[in-house]
């Protein structure tokens, strides 16, 4: 894989698949040319939400937070447009033969904003902080048995078990080095005044109002023409939770860039872009909506019921209800059609709308004297379907309800507040623990990480993987996960992914509606939002999940 | 007078204790585990969850948890959020100026508009002007303030560009920018109050204008303005004062929505955000603080009555005479 290449050639190594992008990017943009770049200026970015804290291991760096964190910290590794992981702050990231050790060599001469050098000792101190008991990265770092400093710029993560996907973690909070001196001087307040090695340095933060960053004059990167990065003087992020207000802020010129994950606002941004009023950058990654089944809970513990429910669904109608027609394609697996891991064979095998087959399967279950829900033969199947009180999700759940009722399933809809919805899925206090406190939940599944990371979290043994919400696993899934963890051969890994996805077309741990479209919309003066690069002239993964790296964004005068 | 204030202050203690107890109990009854919320989707181990629960004191019984929290609160220590690592008092200190400015501006707008308007429509009761104002105020009362807020953003921020759609500038950074940024949210909160206060004052003023002392003033040939504002307005303002006190609570709840729409870093937005994240420590502290503010504002209004109307101040001595 590219992370293991140790150079900047960007040829993608053996894991690059066909070199296609990991997700589709549909953009209506103003062309950008590095020779025309003007420097200076301020860009205000309107984000979906505030982040609780800016310290890696404490802050919840979801899509909004990642945008800010990448501006402050930079990452050890970054994902290219081909879906591969490339060294970023690192010069190289190399595994040992059995993939139980990952050795990172940092680039020379990089300093944090306070002048502290970025070296192995700094990352070692960071590791102690982010692997502490109160860190939200503890789950990820539990696999690291030892952090070893090899020399001034080189260190090694020693893992308990082989993991070919480990560099993937270094593109996120785990791979965001922060100044150990600044942290040790103010451990309790570091998250309020972060010091990283990224293109912008912290100026001020008023929670729920704005975080203000200014250009890092000693940033380590230059562009292809040797110009110092970043181009902008100032970057301000404002959390604006209301979608209408966020969009209006960009329309009114209070902000220059806005972020959305809502189909209706992707559409509004498209319309504004078509009228020439703004630009839009869309991406559909490996994340899709649907319903998850708690496969330990009758009657959806029976595969016939799950299959029947999948056959009852009309995906196109659900997409229309969500407002995604023409924006998001129907989903059939954990990977979108643009992903190198996508399988047409799986797409063809995914259950299609077939009410007769649904009825047939339900009748088999209903007339089974040993049916799992303990009801008498002939009694209809009753299910409970939970959804957070979001208008579009409620409409979607009503769509599901009518489709399932049409084949004779008795559906009870429950509105469950978001925090509780997630906790019910984890079910830490369920009996047995982590078996989930729900039957069917509306849900989003998948991510752009390596398939091993995504599928291990979602389908590892449910007793030890709280994020296996469906509680579904099997010997084949475990076997294929082992292949994904230990093999560097793309073909072999692809076959493993396809095998798991194929199993799901039969076992139906979840249903699918459509991929999740995300978008950044921007004033026409903002340039190069999606064109950020990785050293070595490797194209970055653009606006995936409406997040970008900011050093190469510039503003037309 | 001091005795009256002292007596009323002592009466506030059980009210605040009841408010804090109810808040604590209600939050405890909410579904969801704060420990899981803190650890999020990071694949927490059962041991990690248990440790956070222990640190939060969630394994203690409810009375023990309430007592621990209350005894700390009595010393001014409302605790720290486990999620944001910010102390509750720091969060309140950071957000209070925003919400206070919004409330002062919106109440000022409402009072400045509704008093002359209420007086004028009472004076012209039954006229076309009166009927027109009545119809408009009824209309304004029926519009939810979040709808009004979005309408104001579209017209005055997006179309006309007169005010920013979102964001906040502190008064200490720039007075004009701060007032400009706070104008639309304050107006969104004020419009409903204008309708309420105008209609209330109109009703009271019409009654007062029939009273003997006003008829006497008219007979003396005093100017209309002097009769309306000096002789009729003061005795007509008791209901207005009561409602203004109650409106503080309405405004506090209004700011929850308005601060969300205009993306303002005030107490209302903090409260909503922390409730959503099951940040119990922050929510408990905030609710106690808001309840205290509400109780004290109404206490201040009670005292103000005594100044405005000597009958209240001397009510007890008369009754015992």
CATH class of one domain in chain B: Mainly Alpha
**What's the count of strands of chain A?**
21
Note the beta-strand portion of chain A.
15-25%
Structural class of chain A: alpha+beta
What count of helical segments of chain B does DSSP give? Answer: 15
Largest sheet of chain B: none
pLDDT averaged over residues of chain A: 90
Structural class of chain B: mainly alpha
Number of helices of chain A: 16
Distance between the termini of chain B: 18 Å
What is the overall silhouette of chain A? globular
What is the CATH architecture annotation of one domain in chain B? Answer: Orthogonal Bundle
Helix content of chain A: 25-40%
How large is the share of residues in beta strands of chain B?
Answer: under 5%
Keywords (chain B): Cell membrane, Membrane, Transmembrane, Transmembrane helix, Transport
Subcellular location (chain B): Cell membrane
InterPro entries (chain B): BPD_transp_1_N, MetI-like, MetI-like_sf
Membrane topology (chain B): Multi-pass membrane protein
Provide an overview of this structure.
The complex is a heterodimer of chains A (557) and B (321). The model of chain A is unreliable at 1-27 (pLDDT under 50). Chain A starts with 23 loop residues before the first strand and ends with a strand. The relative contact order of chain A is 0.17. By secondary structure, chain A is of the alpha+beta class. Chain A has helices spanning 63-73, 120-130, 138-141, 166-169, 180-185, 243-252, 263-274, 303-312, 315-321, 344-349, 355-366, 391-406, 418-426, 451-459, 475-486, 490-507; strands at 24-28, 42-47, 77-79, 85-87, 90-95, 101-106, 144-149, 154-159, 200-206, 210-215, 234-239, 257-260, 279-293, 382-387, 410-415, 440-445, 510-522, 526-527, 533-534, 538-539, 554-555. In chain A, strands 1, 2, 9, 10, 11, 12, 13, 14, 15, 16 and 17 form an 11-stranded mixed beta sheet that branches. In chain A, strands 5-6-8-7 form a 4-stranded antiparallel beta sheet, with helices on one face. Chain B is mostly helical and 321 residues long. Chain B has a domain at 97-277: MetI-like fold (Orthogonal Bundle), CATH 1.10.3720.10. Helix content of chain B is 78%, strand content 0%. Chain B contains 15 helices and no strands. Chain B has helices at residues 2-29, 34-39, 46-56, 62-74, 88-123, 128-141, 145-159, 175-208, 212-219, 224-236, 238-261, 267-276, 280-308, 310-313, 315-320. The relative contact order of chain B is 0.14. Residues 317-321 of chain B have low confidence and may be disordered. Classes of the chains: A alpha+beta (557), B mainly alpha (321). The interface between A and B is large, with 52 and 49 residues.
